[in-house]
Amino acid sequence: MEFLIDNRQGDVYDIPIRDLTWKTERIGKAGTVEASLVLENPLKYPIQSGAIVRVMDGKHKVFYGYLFDDGYSKDSVMTIKAYDQLRYLMNEDTFVIPASPADKAILTICKRFGLKVGTFENTGYVSPGIVEDGKKAFDVVSKFLDASLVATNQNYILFDDFGKLSLKNIKNMVIKADDFYIGEDSLLFSFNYKRSIDNDTYNRVKFVRDNKKRGKRETFIFEDSTKQKKWGLLQHWKKIDENMTDAQIKDLGTKYIQLKGNPSRTLDIECLGNWKIRAGSMVFIYIEKIGIKEYFLVDECTHRWKEGIHTMSLKVKVI
Questions:
Q1: How far apart are CA 311 and CA 155, in angstroms?
Q2: Is the CB of residue 272 less than 8 Å from the CB of residue 171?
Q3: Beta bridge partners of 80
Q4: Closest of 13, 66, 19, 63 to residue 41, by C-alpha
Q5: 3-class secondary structure per residue, 107-132
Q6: What is the DSSP letter of 138?
Q7: Predicted confidence (pLDDT) per residue in 239-252, tens digit
Q8: CA separation for the pair 156, 101 (Å, rounded)
Q9: Which of 121, 125, 122, 119 is nearest to 148 (CA)?
Q10: Torsions phi, psi of 85, nearest 5?
Q11: Which residues in the chain come in under a pLDDT of 70?
Q12: The 3-state secondary structure of 48-95, one letter per residue
């Protein structure tokens, strides 16, 4: 494991580490690295806030980010916490962005904050424009990605790819099963499987639109009566843009029912680690005893490295 710190003053330190944790989440969170470093004399290594932190394990480019927290203890252990570039999307600002595809809108935001970008795939769908005051950039990014998901059923993830922000369709984040999979006879330590209609599952969608010309509020309802008989009424309410046409509203409501009309299926995994896996990856999982043999989307991924042993914890779900 190579752990380098560039203090941005012409010095690069290669410091031995005791342990390291790298965590990524798919929605609204920056990737982090937390590590314990063996450092007998910290005064010989002047490390500044904002220093560049780079982690590699052989050929694997694990993490590239910036130091935000550091501390030192009596037993000569320095602890650090670094974030990747997504941390800077926690900045708050006023955002006035016209109707745009999500990729174009997000590139505009990245440019505003001087962030380095890599591959940005074309999302296609033109999302409605926004006017937001005093909002986190991450919240605005999520709005554009959510609008694209509902309209097209195509799921995109924004992530830091070793120092450059990338936007990709999760279909292009698939780890092929013949390259890597997790199963009872392959890497798996333990698991916890759950199916639920308690969160983000709906069989009725109620949209409201304020019609200023007529001076009234209009209501649009889309529902699945068969699933209401099974589960009871599970309703989602949403105020929509007054400029949307009836045809656009109908299309949106139909897609919302399709997208949100099934039980969620989640799985927590503890297994041996592989640096290829991160939040947003699609991973094949095979657990025969509960009938699982399919690809799951990684919502959260936590890698742990200690004394040469690499493990990971995954929170995954079916899409």
A1: 27
A2: no
A3: 35, 70
A4: 13
A5: HHHHHHCCCCEEEECCCCCEECCEEE
A6: H
A7: 988 888 889 899 88
A8: 12
A9: 125
A10: -60, -25
A11: none
A12: CCCCEEEEEECCEEEEEEEEEEEEECCCCEEEEEEECHHHHHHCEEEE
| CA–CA separation, 151 and 84 (whole Å) | 30
The pTM assigned to this predicted structure is 0.88
Instruction: Quote the CA–CA distance of 288 and 183 in Å, as a whole number.
Output: 8
Which CATH class, in words, describes the domain spanning 88-169? alpha beta
The position carrying tokens 């509203």 is 249
Q: How many residues does the chain have?
A: 319
Which residues does residue 174 pair with via DSSP β-bridges, in sequence order? Answer: 282
Task: Write the pLDDT tens digit of every residue in 87-96.
Answer: 999 999 999 9
Query: For residues 153 and 247, what is the distance between their CA atoms, to the nearest angstrom?
Result: 18
- Reference 94, options 109, 116, 106; nearest CA is 109
Residues forming beta bridges with residue 220, ordered by sequence position: 207
Residue for token digits 């296609």? 124
Look up the CATH superfamily of 174-197+264-317.
Bacteriophage T4, Gp27, baseplate hub, domain 3 (2.40.30.150)
- Structure tokens of 224? 């699945």
